[in-house]
Amino acid sequence: MASKFRRPVVSKMDELDTTVPGWVSTQSLALDWVCDAEHGRGLPLSRIVDVTGEEGVGKSTIADHVMAEFQRRGFHAHLWDTENARDTNYQRKVGIVRSKAGQIDADSMEEGFDVMTELISWHVANDPDRPGVIVWDTPAGTPTAAELDEDKTNERFGPAKIIKAKLRRLNVVLRKSNWLLLIVNQLYNGQTPSGQAYKVAYGGSGIPYFASVRLTVSHPSKFWRTNSEKEMGQPPLGQTVYVKCVKNRVAPPHRSRQIAVEYGVGISNVWDVFNTLEGAGAIKQAGGWYSFDPAYDAELARVVDRKFQGGYLGLGSVIASHEDRTGLWKRLMSEHLKLNKPVTQEGA
């Protein structure tokens, strides 16, 4: 058989390496836990990740943070932005170095898939040890070749079939690489023949099937710096959203967390740390003031011996003005990770 196929096609199961070749953080403590609740490592390489939600819930912000983390670690980062709706200043604040990031300029869905496949194949052959990410934002804004040809609009090959067929080919290349394909997908309203409304992701079943990790982003809720700013009609500071992992082939699924996205800034880890520590009793509230409780952790209360106002914004100011800002932040993150570490029962 080996001579016919020119390569071994039958192996023992323990000879096949199906493990994840690496992990990359989302730059969000909460999201890393949602995607990998056991270790908090973030997203797996050589896989497809699907981030789905309605418009304006922060899907593109999540994708930008992932690109920024790839660049921070010296990896490749490419964007296929079919909506052409990126705020360049916002990307820079998130951490993307645009001069070192790639932009895929494909006119059609078919051309874009060909570019992504060739791009990953080239790096597998010429730069196999350096991981990379491609963000496709979004399938809903990507026309097919038939849709761009007026003479073929009535005989077009539907986007759902194109996506499924192209992902079959791309997935073969992707699984041999250290790359990640992150697809930002859009929910739209549908209606059954009986008139019942429902929401469905664009592109059919291809993306949900091939994605190893699927995240849904929902229920945005705006927040203000203070209640008085809200009452005065001032613009909100940001919004909180719920992220749930509805499918996970590499870690426990069905984890969910709330995250905060500050407009013009990005995902706030201080917000997540503050709410985790307050919920555990490490931070106590008295009136409008907050402080670290010595009964919970005397050492941490000694390090942060001042009271503060403003919730997570006040904690951010405490960290920024502390003489050992880096050390304090590491201490707070360590406590946050300890509180979020799952308890494994004996014999489970």
Give the name of the CATH superfamily of the largest domain: P-loop containing nucleotide triphosphate hydrolases
Helical content (DSSP H or I, runs of 4+): 25-40%
CATH top-level class of the largest domain: Alpha Beta
Oligomer class: single chain
The tally of strands reads 14
Q: Biggest sheet, in brief?
A: 10 strands, mixed
User: Low-confidence spans: pLDDT under 50, at least 5 residues?
Assistant: 343-348
Number of helical regions: 13
Task: Indicate the mean pLDDT.
Answer: 91
Rounded to the nearest angstrom, the distance between the terminal CA atoms is: 42 Å
The radius of gyration computed from the alpha-carbon positions, rounded to a whole number of angstroms, is: 23 Å
> What do we call the CATH topology of the largest domain?
Rossmann fold
Q: What CATH architecture of the largest domain would you give?
A: 3-Layer(aba) Sandwich
Beta content comes to: 15-25%
Q: Please, how many domains?
A: 2
Question: What report would you give on this structure?
Answer:
This protein is an alpha/beta fold. The chain folds into two domains: 19-267, Rossmann fold (3-Layer(aba) Sandwich); 277-339, no CATH class. It is 36% helix and 24% strand. The chain is built from 13 helices and 14 strands. It has helices at residues 2-5, 29-35, 59-72, 88-94, 109-126, 145-148, 159-174, 206-210, 227-231, 269-280, 298-303, 312-321, 325-340, and strands at residues 23-24, 43-44, 47-53, 76-81, 102-103, 132-137, 179-191, 197-201, 213-223, 238-248, 256-262, 266-267, 283-286, 289-292. The strands form three sheets. Strands 3, 4, 5, 6, 7, 8, 9, 10, 11 and 12 form a ten-stranded mixed β-sheet that branches. A two-stranded antiparallel sheet has the order 1-2. Strands 13-14 form a two-stranded antiparallel sheet. β13 and β14 (289-292) form a beta hairpin. The longest helix has 18 residues, at 109-126. It is globular, with a radius of gyration of 23 Å.
